[in-house]
Amino acid sequence: ASQTDEKATVQGSLTWTSASGLYVGSFASGVDFGEDSPDIEVDYFIGYGFDATEKVNIDIVLNRYTYPGASEMAYNELVTTTTLDETWKLNVSYTNDVWGSDTTGWYYGVGGEWGLPNDFSLSANVGRSVFNDSAVAQDYTDWGVGVSRSFGIANVSLGYYGADGNGRDNFGKLADNRVVLAVKVGR
Questions:
Q1: How far apart are CA 9 and CA 41, in angstroms?
Q2: What is the three-class DSSP state of 167?
Q3: Paired sense of beta strands 88-95 and 75-84, if any
Q4: Strand, helix or coil at 174?
Q5: What is the CA radius of gyration of the chain?
Q6: Could you give the CA distance from residue 106 to residue 161 in angstroms, rounded to a whole number?
C-alpha cells in the first residue's frame, strides 16, 4: 500500500555495520496517511546478519517505527530474513502491536532476484500479512515484480506491485496495483 498517498517522496538511511555482522541504523521517509496524519516516518533498527553455511545467510533485525507528531502509532517489529544461495529470500516478521493497535501481526514472505543480460536484474515476491484482530485489518496478500540496474552508485528500479481484495479493503485506493519507479543512491 502506498504510504505517501500515491505521491513521490524522499527517503534516506544511515547504517553502521561491524565486521562481526552487527549493525545499527536509522531510516526516514515522507508519509501521508490522510488529513491530520504524520508527515514523516523515522525508524531505528539494530540487527545481526551472518552466514549459517556457504549458501545460507540469516539476518535478524529489531525495528522501531516512529511517527513524529503521532507517537501513538509507534511500534516494534522483529524481522527475520533467510537468504538461500544469494537468490531466494524467506521472511518472517512479528509484532505484538501493529500500527500501535495492541494487535499481533505476522508477515510471511518469499521472493527472489535473478541476473539478466546487460547487468539487469529481475525480482519477484509474494507475502501474506496475518492479524490477530480483524477489526484492525483483514489478512491480505501482497506481491510484486520488477527489474533493476545499477549505474555507478545509483540503482534504478521499475516494478509493478499490488495486493489482493482484502488489502484493498484495508487500505482503499492506496493498495491499488501500481507501477513504481525508484532511484537509490548510495553505497
A1: 12
A2: helix
A3: antiparallel
A4: helix
A5: 17
A6: 20
| CA–CA dist 85, 53 (Å, integer) | 10
Distance of CA 97 to the CA centre of its chain: 17
120 SS3 class? strand
- Residue 158, strand partner residues: 147, 181
Torsion 41-24-21-77 (CA) sign = negative
Q: What cell numbers appear for 113 in the block?
A: 532476484
CA angle 96, 138, 67 (to 5 degrees): 50
One digit per residue, the tens of pLDDT, for the chain of length 187 reads 544 455 566 778 899 999 999 999 999 988 765 566 677 889 999 999 999 999 999 999 999 999 888 788 899 999 999 999 999 999 999 999 998 899 999 999 999 999 999 999 999 999 999 999 998 999 999 999 999 999 989 999 999 999 999 988 888 877 888 899 988 887 6
d(CA 76, CA 61): 10
Element (H, E) at 145: strand 140-151
Q: Three cell numbers at 118?
A: 546487460
Cell 553502521 -> residue:
16
Could you tell me the pTM of the whole model?
0.82
Q: Which amino acid, one-letter code, is at 33? A: F
Distance between first and last Cα of the chain: 27
Amino acid identity at 117? P
